[in-house]
Design a protein that fits this description.
By secondary structure, the protein is an alpha/beta fold. The protein folds into two domains: about 210 residues, 3-Layer(aba) Sandwich (Rossmann fold); about 30 residues. Helix content is about 25%, strand content about 25%. A nine-stranded mixed sheet has the order 11-10-9-12-8-1-6-7-13, sandwiched between helices. Strands 2-5 form a two-stranded antiparallel sheet. A hairpin with a 2-residue loop joins strand 10 and strand 11.
Amino acid sequence: MKIVVAYKWAANPQDAEVRPDGTVDLSRAKAAVSEYDPVAFELARRLADATGGEVVGLTVGDRSIDTPLARKAALSRGLDRLVMVADDALAGADGTRLAAVLAAAVTAIGDVGLVLTGDSSVDVAQGQVSMTLAGRLGWLALGAVSSVAPAEGGLVVERDLPTGMTTLLLTGPAVLAATSDAAVPRVPGMKDILGAAKKPVEVLALADLAVEPAGVALSTLGTSRPAEPTRGAVLFDGDAATAATELVGALRLAGVL
């Protein structure tokens, strides 16, 4: 089985600076494999080891995703090889656009039986790309996946839903979005990092993929701080006279009286 792990190389918002006027500065935020994607890497590696399959990493974005550091960070997590679409035309692309490019790349890789992703990206956190990707491919999409294992005739998939754990038998190609606690990701050691440099990397040209021109474009017009929460006061629940006195005091403190 050929398993694709679709991941995102993204800046971590935790490193961002929020200015007094509410604008966000990401210039100092360090880029890395998106926080929730290592779980998908781990699930894919375990499944490939159990089935004798291959794990192919796939990421798309602007040219900043294709650096020696970015390559090693992904390839050291159990991938057999890496496929990238690095084009500045994808700078700031929304989830729908990224899903379209990912779908075209999966088709170009060929003979893929399964795509695994994290449940969302650390920077946008909309959780829509995996579902849109599956729609583009015409495949089944499943979110909240907590386990995937080989079985006779297909794969056994467990989903952790609010109504309880659901176990399914999957017999065709699908896109699975893993929960953040579906597996404990391995921490790459020095051997993994050094070995990553020897693994094959293929860079696909965006122009060579069957992707329609970008449609509606989105851009951020501005950001602002959230409104301060309304402060409340707990009044004495004893006799009416005491409660009334405390109410008047609270209203005066709030500037109402």
